[in-house]
Amino acid sequence: MLCARHVCLRRIAGGEWAEQMAFWRFVGNPCVTVERLIEGWSDQTRRAAAGRHVLAIQDTSEVKFSTTPKDRRGLGKIKKGNAHGVLLHAMLAVDADTGSCLGLVAGQVWTRGEKNETPHAQRILADKESHRWVSTAEQGRDVLHQARRITVVNDREGDFYAHWVRTPADNVELLSRVMHDHRLMEGGTLRKAAGHVPFCAKAVIELPHRVDRDARKAHLSLRFGAVSLKRPQHTPDKDLPPSVPLNFVEVIELHPPTGAKPVHWLLLTTHRITSTSDAWQIVAWYKLRWLIEQLFRSLKSQGLQIEDSQLRSADRLEKLVAIAAKAATIVIQLVQARHAPDPLPASFAFSPEEIEVIDALAKSLQGKTELQKNPHPANTLPWAAWVIAKLGGWSGYASHKPPGPITFHNGLARFQNLVEGWALRNV
Predict the structure, then answer these.
(1) Alpha carbon distance 420, 397 (integer Å)
(2) d(Cα 388, Cα 244) in Å, to the nearest integer?
(3) Does residue 266 fall inside a structural domain?
(4) What would you report as the CA-atom Rg of the chain, rounded to the nearest whole angstrom?
(5) How far apart are CA 305 and CA 406, in angstroms?
């Protein structure tokens, strides 16, 4: 998938019928399950997380597949309207100090079945789709148990009372953007309480480019404080405590550029906040949540084109999504590797045979001057990424535009051919 920049099994097989049959048999094999594929996500992440403060960033993406009224391919509804597909909920491990992507941690892939007739408000958490936020955090806690500290980071959908109660542990913190205007034990609501706190600091942050927004600077005003959320009045989960103490940080772009949507984040966290530097640190950690959005884009139109798959059944499509999520993560790691302050081993993305090829290429792709040489330590991911980027058409000069996902996909396509040729050299 990485080398073909697509999930089409025919294209991955390169026209080889035996290869196509092998891929089809693999995704059709009942012993190959989504759960086992997801377990494999974290093989390298466990080692990479040891001793670090890890941001365990989780979110959900809807993957739409083409269907007709007569052929839904076993897929349930997603989004609004008549779209059908699968849902991917993933947790990505990111180093809190450097922003380096350490790999996938845990998650779920599923398609919706029949609609649950019990009203949402009357169902316990275990019977709701929102339970995935808590269950994935539990899986993440097991995978990342060697980490020095874990901060689970959610977008707005992960902001609900039971999550605030059940996820935090001795070395597990929780950070989420606010969706609900929670009632407080001291009276009133969260948004009203935050609105009464004066702003205490200002800063300028860089907003990365997104599909719906150009990269730009944002002038933010900040305030923070402590609150105690009150248990929802009509929750069916009767084991929840009457309150949970949390801290909030609110940042607002009071004077955005003309036509730009202002930045406004109201964040809740279990982290202790005693100073403005603590509060800005919470904002900086939440900013790294954009990496999981990048993962989803790499999976879809800007990368592997997962939504173009023509596999005919929902169970095979679910497996394909689970495999593609791993591939998309490796692309992110390669893109990041060009400026990684703490290089990961090349073995996190490449096999021993592939590393042997990279070593041979590293020598031939270097120029005569120091500026044209691979500046990274051998057998690290940045060292390998330099080689793949060069194969993809990057000049190699640090002063030139850095390679992006498309450059790495192009480089990997050439690399695949070279690996195959290398394997045949003694035949």
Answers:
(1) 28
(2) 49
(3) no
(4) 23
(5) 13
Cα gap 154→174, rounded to integer Å:
8
Q: Which bin fits 79, alpha (ψ -120 to 50), beta or left (φ > 0)?
A: left
Would the pTM count as exceeding 0.85? yes
For the chain, give the number of residues. 427
**Single residue among 337, 367, 400 that ends a domain in this structure:** 337
Do β-strands 149-154 and 53-65 pair in parallel, antiparallel, or remain unpaired? Answer: parallel
Distant-in-sequence, close-in-space partners of 45: CB < 8 Å, separation ≥ 6: 93, 102, 103, 104, 105, 143, 144
Phi, then psi, of 318 in degrees rounded to 5: -60, -40
Between the ranges 157-161, 258-262, 309-313, where is the mean pLDDT highest?
A: 157-161
Mean pLDDT of 222-230: 97
Does position 181 have pLDDT exceeding 70, yes or no? yes
Number of C-beta neighbours around residue 308 at 10 A: 13
Q: What is the pLDDT of residues 165-175, one digit of tens each?
A: 999 999 999 99
CB atoms within 10 A of CB 398: 10
Domain boundary among 337, 362, 395: 337
Cα separation, 280 vs 391, in Å, equals 40
CA gap 334, 322 in Å, rounded: 19
CA torsion sign, 233 to 237 to 242 to 247? negative
User: DSSP assignment, residue 347?
Assistant: G
Mean pLDDT of 106-119: 85
Tally of structural domains, the chain:
2
397 and 374 in a common domain: yes
Does a structural domain hold residue 229? no
Print the SS3 string covering 284-326. HHHHCCHHHHHHHHHHCCCCCCHHHCCCCCHHHHHHHHHHHHH
For range 317-325, the mean pLDDT: 95
Cα(420)–Cα(412) distance, integer angstroms: 12
Angle between helices 352-365 and 405-423 (to 10 degrees): 110
Same domain, 25 and 68: yes
Specify the range with the lowest mean pLDDT, choosing from 67-76, 136-145, 230-239, 339-348. 339-348
**Residue numbers of the domain that contains 325:** 9-155+289-337
